[in-house]
Structures are given as structure tokens and as C-alpha cells.
Amino acid sequence: MGTVRLTMAQALLRFLDQQYVSVDGKETKFVKGLMGIFGHGNVTGIGEALERDAGSLTFIQGKNEQGMVHAAAAYAKQKNRQQIYACTSSIGPGALNMITAAATATVNRIPVLLLPGDNFASRQPDPVLQQLEVPSDYTISANDPFKSVSKYWDRIVRPEQLMTAVIQAMRVLTDPAETGAVTLALPQDVQAEAYDYPTSFFDKRVHYIDRRPPATDAILRAVALMQNKKKPLLIAGGGAIYADALPELRSFVEAFGIPVAETQAGKSSLTWDHPLNVGAIGVTGSLSANILANEADVIIGIGTRYSDFTTQSRSAFGHPGVQFVNINISGFDSTKLNGVAMTADAKLGLQALHQALAQENYQSGYEDGEIARLKLQWDAEVNRLYTLEHEQGLAQTRALGVINETIDASSVVVCAAGSLPGDLHRLWRSVEPKTYHMEYGFSCMGYEVSGAFGVALAQQDREVYAIVGDGSYLMLHSELITSIQERRKLTVLLFNNHGFQCIHNLQRGHGSDGFGNEFRYRSEATRALSGEYLSIDFAAHASSLGIKSFKATTAEQLKAAIMQAKEETISTLIEISVLPGTNTDGYESWWNVGVPEVSSSEKVLHAHRQMSEKIQSIKSI
Which pLDDT does position 513 carry in this prediction? Predict the structure, then answer.
């Protein structure tokens, strides 16, 4: 058996460059490249290896460690989890900056490979700059917190350990049921240590992502449950999209007359104007979908993890006999809500259930025109909100209407946090699949711009729009610079509503007068943040970064700015001034949040009583 002498870092890159996945007979190179910020802990290890022999791996220079991991996750999400960028950082603060984004990837079941630098394994120069010392356990470093947010974690303290560690890493990264963040902590001295690696270690490896068929007994249980159910509702989650099961989903619901409601991750599973697409489900749901969810006697969940926003904190399903059939590649998710678990690939699961129900001549029992009537009413409400005018300024829903009508149907919109995800989930009209990219598993502020850059890397033939509030933009916008550097255009649609208005609305809806969420000057009289709004010129800020920028305060100006931005070849930003509080709310939705049982405010106590009454009325699932 031949060997080749390489440093651990050199061997790692050579191995990553030879990893492929195969889905339905189609091979894809799994690791496209690395994103990184160099410092001590990785610059003389992975950095040297990338400089001298990166193979076909592309290196992208991040500007913020959290931002580059968000970008990598967005890239993998847009690629249906079949291609990734790895991310490398220095030790200490550089590594810790990746943890928030690692959690975001894991919650959303998106593969990212994290390669943080670590303390010297030899401990010879101990303690080194930026080393975290834990006197009670000297094996702990700043990388140990990654354990709680990673689906696989390892520390490579000898160069030969790399060989088993990366095999396990690839196993998790390419497993649709187990995937998420994978962390390999790399001590900076070990990165530079050499070992005689077997040449076979660097042979091309193909990881087969085989579609898991449902068990025959699981199909029979699902059919037995559904036979006497008259009002089914299908909830399309992100797993339906990742499994490329949208043709099967459409065929299934059309065959049996089953309405479809979409989660944030599942939105664009059906075109918005399909007769059976009743819109968004849950806390941020449409009236049509939430009415049907309340009346449904069976819920068919496809690739959804049933978050509290989907289930309205388990209050959405009001039928006394409601039951669940769950098709999910993850057994952890398929068994939720005491459902009949079809632990299987979404495409194969839908095909099998379709065939079995057809043999039983199953049909839903909705009255003629019942679904169409609800859909027509909701479409009229969206039209109203999209054209809503305010004398004081531009409403948020009006701005979204202009954007939806002006950008190309093939464009991808990216969002994550604030009031915008609720409005987009309810109102946005998706025409093509995978044009709605929402990170709402973690709803991580700061994902929007970084995520849009990742999508722009993945979909170079489409316009990409980051729809972001001023609060999220201020938190993290550094990868705008990277988009310029990489010549990957994205357009930031920045909604300036003077603060964290989503949480401001949540406060006031539960008895608060509003505290600490708007961007205001401190009042000299009250010493509270209750003065005038801060004056922030976001367009000027973007211009200073080399971004082409525009401003819009009216619907007409916004449409003109979007048309101009389309003609630009570099990243652009449109600052849109919108009225606070002009987002959507209600539509028979509810969310369980803790409201104080004791307060000096009668408004708070009233809100607590209302919350308690609602909780007591929820049917246990």
C-alpha cells in the first residue's frame, strides 16, 4: 500500500476535494470549497495548505465568521443539501463567532462543515493567545461549546486521527435524516504535523444518498387511519423540497382533492395560484389555511418538524378526532404529535401512499367549492394588503406588493427575522419552486444578507433579493463586501421602520406600552429611549462599501428603484422607508408566549388571563 507524507491540513483538503454525492444516479461534487477568515490557529495550517495546493477547491474570504457560515448554509440549502462550503476560523473568538450560525444550520437540518482552529495539542506554549483556560478540566477549549449545536463533533489531536474523523463527518453531512453542523476542532500544531497517509485515503469517494422507502406496514397503518377521514389537510415542509418531491406532492393532492398549506421552509412547493394551495399555515398563516387546519380531521405532514409556529403552539388543530400521518426521513420528526410515522423519503412516501389510497378509491369529503371559496377570499385579502395606501407613508404590505409584482418570477427572495417573515409567509406569491428562501427554524437575525450571498453563489442565473429589516441589517451585513469581491450580485431591500418593530408589536400585544425596541434617542427628561427616531442613512452606508444604493419612500419610487437595480451588475441596496406597525397580524392565529402572572400593570394582568384561558382550552396532542 502506497503512502504520501502530508501535513494534517494538507491531507484534509486533499480528502475533501475527492468527496461526491450521488442522488438518483446523478453525481455531484460535494465540497465546492472553503470559506474562511485567517488568524493564528489556522493561517499556518489550513491557510498554507490552501495557498500551496487547494486542488479544485475554491477559497472565499469571509468578513465575519458568523456571516460566512450563514452564507455556506444558505448555499447548501439552495443546493438541496447536495453541495457545501466548509468554513475555517482561527481559535478563540474567531471560532466562537461561528456558533450561532452552526446552531442555525443544525436546527434547519442543513449541512455545514466547520473547521475551527484549536489550542496546541502539545500544550508546549500553553496558554496561547486567545486560549480559554478551564482550571477544572484542561481538555476544554473554546470549541467545546460547538458540541451542543453540532450533529457530530471531534477534536483531531494526532494527524492520523483525521482519517476516521472525516469519514464520520461525511456520514453525518450526507445523511438527510442526521445532517446539520459538523465540527472538527483542529489544534494549530497538529494542522502542521506530517503523517504518512495511505494514498487510498485520497481516492474518489461517492456517498450514495439512497431514497428510503416506507415500510409496508406503515403504509397500511396510514391508509387505515385515512379511510374514514373526510377533511384532510396536507402540510408541505422543507423536506418535500429537499427530496425533490414536488411533482409527487402535486399529483397526490390533485388525485384526492386535498388542500395544501405550506410552512416557511415548504413555501413554493405549489405555485401560489394552484387551486389547492390555501397558503401559509400557523402563527404567520393565511386565514384560509388556518380555518382548514382547525376543521381538518387528519393532517398529512410532509417533511415538517411541526414547530410551534406551524402548529400555533399546538392550538391550530381543533377537530376533536384529528390525527396525523407524517412522512419524514427523520424518525425523530415522523413520530411527532403521536402521528402514524412513515419514516421515509418524501418522494417515495408520497408515491406509496398515493398508490395505496387510490386502490381504496379514497377521496376527500370537502363540499363543492369549499376550498375555492376560502382561497378566493384570501386572494382578495392579499390584493387589499398589497394595494393598501396610508396618508402618513408607505405601508409594509404595500411595499411587499410592489416588490412581488416587479421582480422576475425566477428571482429568489431571502429572509429570516422580524415582522417581514410573517408578511412574506402570508402574502408572498411564489410562482417557481425554490424562489422563497426563508430561514425560520432559528429565525436568526443577520442571516438575510449573508444568506443572500450564499444563494447568489448557488444560483448564478437568478436575481437574488435579501429582504431585511433595519435591525437585522445592523446586526450583520459584512458579506456584502464579499459579494463585491466575488462578483456575485445581490440586491438588499432594506425596510427602515426605526427599530425592532416585530418585538415592539409583540410587547404591546401583551400589555406593554413598548420598551427598548425602537431606535430612538435617550430622552433627557425621562432618561428612557423615548426621544426622536435616530436618523440613519442606510443608503449612504451602503454606498461607502461600494454598493450601488437607492432610496424609496413611495410605491412609485420603489418600483423605479427595483427596475434600476435590475440593470446594475454589482450588489445594490434599496432603503425603503415604511410605517411602523403596518405589518400583518391575526387571521385566527395564536402563539403561546410567557406573560407575567404578577405585574403592576392591569393591561399585563389582562393579557396573562387571556393567555391562560387559551392554554387551558387547547386540545392535548
Answer: 83
User: Residue 188: CB partners within 8 Å, gap ≥ 6?
Assistant: 40, 41, 42, 44, 45, 91, 117, 118, 119, 120, 128
Q: What is the largest CA-CA distance in the chain?
A: 80
Q: How far is CA 205 from the centre of its chain?
A: 29
Three-state helix/strand/coil letters over 565-588: HHHCCCCEEEEEECCCCCCCCCCC
Q: Residue with C-alpha cell 393579557? A: 607
Q: List, for the chain, all residue ranges whose pLDDT scores fall below the cut of 70.
A: 619-621
- What pLDDT digit, counting tens, does each position of 120-172 carry? 999 999 999 999 999 999 999 999 999 999 999 999 999 999 999 999 999 99
Answer whether 204's CB lies under 8 Å from 31's CB: no
Task: Give the closest residue to 593 by CA, choosing from 170, 391, 308, 257.
Answer: 308
Query: 232 is written with which cell numbers?
Result: 384532510
What are φ and ψ of residue 520, in 5° steps?
A: -125, 155
Measured between alpha carbons, how far apart are the two ends of the chain, in Å? 58
CB-based burial, 329-345: b 16+ in 10 Å, e otherwise: bbeebbebeebbbbbbb
Which of 221, 557, 203 has its CA nearest to residue 403? 557
DSSP 509: T
What phi, psi does 295 have (nearest 5°)?
A: -95, -10
Q: What is the mean pLDDT of the chain?
A: 96
Q: In this predicted structure, what is the pLDDT of residue 228?
A: 92
Torsion region of 306: left, alpha or beta (phi above 0 gives left; psi -120 to 50 gives alpha): left
The three cell numbers of residue 466 are 435579501
pLDDT of 511-566, one tens digit each?
888 888 888 999 888 888 988 999 999 999 999 999 999 999 999 999 999 999 99
Spell out the alpha helix ranges (H) of 97-215. 99-107, 162-173, 188-191
Residue pair 306/335 in contact by the 8 Å Cβ criterion: no
Which tens digit of pLDDT belongs to each residue from 406-433?
999 999 999 999 999 999 999 999 999 9
Half-sphere exposure of 144 toward its Cβ, with a 13 Å CA cutoff? 11
Which among 176, 219, 180 has a CA at the least distance from the CA of 331?
176
